[in-house]
Request: fold
Amino acid sequence: MLIRTQITIPSLVRIKTGAIDRIGIYLAREAFERVVLVASAGLDQELLDRVRSSLDAHGIVLQQQLFIEQASFEQATEIFAGLPTNCQAVIGLGGGKALDTGGAELKSNKADSEAVDIYSKRDGDADFVFFMRALHFPIIDNRPLLVAGKPEKREYRAKFIRQNQPYGNMSLTLTLIVSA
Reply:
C-alpha cells in the first residue's frame, strides 16, 4: 500500500523486448495485486491493450488509468492525492510525460536544497545504506547485479540536504526490479 506521506522510487523497472506483455508476471512476482496505470497521452492503443491483457492474465486489478498531457508538480500532486487508498503500485508507461510525473515532487522540492542524500537497499541488505549525494538529476545506479543475470530488487529513499545537513522527512521508498 502506498503511504500518502512518502515518496517512493520505482521498485520494478523493465526496459527490454517483450516487457509489455510480461508486466503482469513482473507485478505478480512482487505480490502487487492492485495498480494504477499512468500513461502518456496519445500512446498507441495496442500497447495499452497488451498491458491490460497481461494484467488480467495474472489477476492484477487495474484500479484506474490516467493519461498525462503535461508533467507538472501540481498535476503529480493531484494524481497521487487521488489514488485509491489500497493501490499498491503505479505503472508509468510511455515517454517523459508519464514517467516525469512520478519524479515531479522530488525535483520540485529540491529547489531549496543543496543536494539530496540517496539511501539504497538491495536483496540481502538488512537496512538502507548511504548510496550517494545527488547534486544533479537524474541519478543513475550503475552497480552490477549481485548475481549476474538474476533480476534483483533495489529500494531507494531520499533526504534533502541544506547547509550540509539533512532536513525534512525521509522520502517514501521507491522500489525497482533491475535486470541485465
Notes: The first helix runs from residue 23 to 29. The helical segments are 23-29, 45-57, 73-81, 96-109. The first strand starts at residue 34 and ends at 40. Residues 113-171 form one domain.
